[in-house]
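May I ask for a single protein's sequence together with how it folds?
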Amino acid sequence: MAHPTVEERRLTARGHERRRQLMDFATLRFAERGYHPTSVAEIVQGIGVGKGVFYWYFSSKEELFLEILREAQQALRRAQRQEIGDEPDPLRRIELGIRSSMAWLDEHRHVFNLFQFAATEERFAPALRRGGEVAAADAVRHVKEGIVEGRIRDGDPEVLTNAVLGVTNQLARVFIHERGERGADVADAAVAFCLEGLLAPPSAPPQPAGTSPRAPAG
């Protein structure tokens, strides 16, 4: 008789709690010591269980790390969506998205180490890219609405969206992760830079009837 796979198993409340303990402890160890030096034996010893318990929930250390990445990306998007809520203004939604991202990354600084490592590993980079694509798909809607309303410059919305995400991620990496600065301060700089770069140019004032634009002096 075939045993159910890890994905097919239905967990009890206690099972979910145990799985959560494994993931939380492993996240801290991966962030502190790195993925490769951290073994399954160290993880199970850290929470006082046997290897059999680990393999009941995860088929491998690699699967565990992928699940940690997936949950972290989902938690970040959830924080963004909760902050944005039903805000009708697309520019304000972009601002709230940036600020909630910085706040989440400030609170979960250790996760940065996992993102940085995953980006360099062929096994994990595709999962990280997929999460980035989902984030871009969430944000591009706000940019498109801003363009339609004439409040964001007319351009390729995907290019503009990825520019905002790129600036936000770089500022977070350098100033929150590497330099330890406050997320709120970094968010102020990111919002000012990104929104200024997105805004449509101001309309030229109407010319009085029967006049022509003044030629530049010189």
